[in-house]
């Protein structure tokens, strides 16, 4: 159990100040690994300890798993009353509130959440039924259109402005796309569908337009907390503003240098605007990093130092560490994979557990070569951020049936199911769907539909399926079995070439659904937080290496981190040019490198297959080339059987020109207690303690006491 004295042992001063501020707005803005998330965890525990009812706390995080883990940790500090705290993503909380209060806006509580693929499906459907006058051939694809629609919502910009400004080459279609958008909106309303953006938009509407609901929500959640605030979009920021309007008890934490979701409309200026929206905000800055060793921190500080836009903050650590991050230029991707596997095996021999290591990359497909290599060495891994289980067509077929049980007017699902019937074409499917949509009893309407040659049998089977399901007790696992029974022959026909491979997905679905006793909850979860397609993800306690996209590694940490694919054209992506996108990629690298606690390995292949399917030589990512060569160690493999050889860093002329190399390295003997020194970040200070062999404590005039290591800190005598 925590109490006041243990709090001050486990938190530093500014963290403690944030945790113990119970009333009023608080903004914690600080770099990676400085304990922002930890501060939130302790604050939940402290609030409850101080008598705040757990039910009145709302904790918003970037993934549902993050919220669960934070509440679990808070529970360990006090007691299990933390499980009564509401925690989740903006989307999952929106879903919960809209099911409860959505009727005030005219929504039935049984609405269905649609994912991106569904949204694209609707756009396609509408595109073909709309009388588009514009040149159809050149008309933007459904993917581009959904990007535009979503961009307009998330960036809070009118669609036509967005098209004229960001998609100038498509501006001749602007009018038609705006028309399409109106149809898309009414289609969703008519069929009880909400896309991800609608969840946020409608939550905001609830707060802004229905005073009684706003009062109730503000009264219920008197303490709001938000992690990773730098990745919120304008709608989310507005939700926070409206939800806290009565009490102002809101604490947000974030790091502008880690903002990596601007492609989804996230706007890190939200952090900067927070104090304007909440006058009297207490701003807390955290400067001590508790995650990484000094050599790793030196490198990560160096990555972000080159950022065009940043709100300067200084980070220091007391975790010394002697190993600099290592950089390996591999001959090709295979050699890069060999390097990672070799290192992992070595580390395991040294006693590092597999689950304490992670390999991070920019895009899901960058790890394919490595996955093969890991497989052939029998190294278990768990891949995160790849394809979601429910994104594949066969899974969507099964889910369509389950979705219809909850919302029989979900036309999209009817259309999808009709298309699984042999010999039934899209035109007929649309015709039948329209009739079902207009009927108050779609299943009966389907049974009554006059049959056609060849496909009557399929329609009969579908009617029988629903009759069986509706008669059965609503136990999700049992319903799922009935659906799978119906689906098996359909599935074998539709995916004749590779159905055995897909079969395991269906089995996985069966395992997942078994843990639910409410079908609506299961369907919401598969839409809001879809499980990963990789089977291994379900053995969470197993000993497995983590492979993850950087986006999915946000907020996490591992003992050992590998970042692969750091080649120019891959990271940053070839389409990025210096500018906003370029800066976002730099922050992405910063997020990746700051996940490491003890060891960091950076690698890239010197040869990559290009779009022309020919191998091209590629150079190191410009983000690495900018770093001071002293901040990492280049390594090269010795011939087979040998160990890895560290080579002296060769300062490139460009880097050397930007960052003068210090002529003489000072030794501890050059300093004495009380002497004055100068540091490029911390300014001037007085030496307070000499720690053999090469570190010293300095009390800086403006930044307080820091422990610095002479190998990494640039200290000069003044
Ligand atoms: P990120 O920006 O990557 O999300 P963060 O600022 O949220 O990082 P945390 O994950 O909360 O940082 O903390 C990083 C690590 O430092 C964790 O292992 C945490 O337990 C540890 N830590 C933070 N503050 C302290 C402290 N005062 N004492 C001991 N350990 C701490
Ligand atoms: Mg965090």
Automatic annotation (TrEMBL):
Keywords: ATP-binding, Helicase, Hydrolase, Isomerase, Nucleotide-binding. ATP binds at residues 30-37. Residues 9-293 form the UvrD-like helicase ATP-binding domain. It comes from the Bacteria. Residues 294-555 form the UvrD-like helicase C-terminal domain. Its EC number is 5.6.2.4. InterPro entries: DExx_box_DNA_helicase_dom_sf (IPR013986), DNA_helicase_UvrD-like_C (IPR014017), DNA_helicase_UvrD/REP (IPR000212), P-loop_NTPase (IPR027417), UvrD-like_ATP-bd (IPR014016). GO terms for molecular function: helicase activity. It catalyses: ATP + H2O = ADP + phosphate + H(+); Couples ATP hydrolysis with the unwinding of duplex DNA by translocating in the 3'-5' direction. Belongs to the helicase family. UvrD subfamily. This is DNA 3'-5' helicase. The lineage of its organism: Bacteria, Pseudomonadati, Thermodesulfobacteriota, Desulfobulbia, Desulfobulbales.
